[in-house]
Please model this.
Amino acid sequence: MRTVDPEKHALRRANIVAAAAGEFAANGVDGTSTAAICRRAGIGSGTLFHYFPTKRDIFHAVFSDDFERSAAIYEEAVTAFRAEAGLELLVDHLVVSLADPLAPGLMAAAVLQAYRDEEFGRLLAGDEARLRAALTRLLERMAADGRRLAFGPDRTARWIQRLFDASFLATGDRDYDPSAQATELRKTVDWLTGRQGS
Amino acid sequence: MRTVDPEKHALRRANIVAAAAGEFAANGVDGTSTAAICRRAGIGSGTLFHYFPTKRDIFHAVFSDDFERSAAIYEEAVTAFRAEAGLELLVDHLVVSLADPLAPGLMAAAVLQAYRDEEFGRLLAGDEARLRAALTRLLERMAADGRRLAFGPDRTARWIQRLFDASFLATGDRDYDPSAQATELRKTVDWLTGRQGS
DNA sequence: CCATTAATAGAGTGATTGCTCTATTAATGG
DNA sequence: CCATTAATAGAGCAATCACTCTATTAATGG
Model:
């Protein structure tokens, strides 16, 4: 008999996913050929389809791997003792993910895919909903503590999300300035959440 | 001899562009086949390529037609007597274009295309730059009139743009509420531009 | 050290792609 | 009413696509 080493298998799988992410970010789902993924990953097509049944499944994997990690952070933020600390945890997480150079391309590819691929749409909506739920719960607590939010907790949560969505898109700009962006992002979030300051 | 009627020609061309826009918004550039455009426009492939040399050119036309109309509005806004009125004109224009149901799909398609198609990248960057220049000039005048902007004029202009970019993406959501969205958008712009109020 | 089977490569396949070419129709000017 | 040519359709083509199939290698457990 020969058994499968789950650790080695996961590693090889992750290597393919990483190569695919680069291609998808640059060319979108339909613009990426399975041959291009193979070339970048340094494998043959037989190997690729040994790990994933279809190209679509590779695309799903790129995101669901990431969403799992994010869900853990959302959970942690909600259970924070101070609501402010929880919000800060979420904002930090988002600011960090802004640093990923693949982010704008992957985001654009995801928007298009969500239209045509119902399963992927649900995947994406799930992550959005989890983040919004976490933000909303924290904002509700802050409002109860006397913070004057710009809008209701749920709508303010949406705006924070939207702000980051927009920033993801902006990271593709040639003159994008990460540190100025992060500072301004935090200041805007502060305004949305009614934090005192200049 | 037989001459070409420029008006009829433009009309037929516009019909193809409209059909193509719908396909591109739903499936992206690579996900849209020229056959699909023909089907939707109700024409044969021979006709399609009689009006446009390549699929890429059709995609460019979808945007450059729109950018021309926008450029005229930017121009009008900058030459407004009161800077506030000019800004309002721009915001109104953006809010109106948010109503286009194709907006989020086209935006996603555009982001991906900009990576791989240098000419299109310049086209897109040109419109962005024109809008930002108009916003910046108006904000500079407002700052000189005593308005206290959230950031410098140029960076505030960027944030206004980004806010709308984010809203374009949001219009794809199932529970998108246009009127609440517009109200909140204006309130956020008011904050960014230091307008007094609640 | 052998049986088993996971891992891999790459040639091959039918379907689809963007686009060309040819033929036909119909509108215009004289 | 005819010559000219814009407008249109659709068959056809080389290239590319996602994916399958077969063969080979190499790692594991007994």
Remarks:
- Chain A is about 75% helix and 0% strand.
- The two ends of chain A are 69 Å apart (CA to CA).
- The mean pLDDT of chain A is 94.
- The first helix of chain A runs from residue 6 to 27.
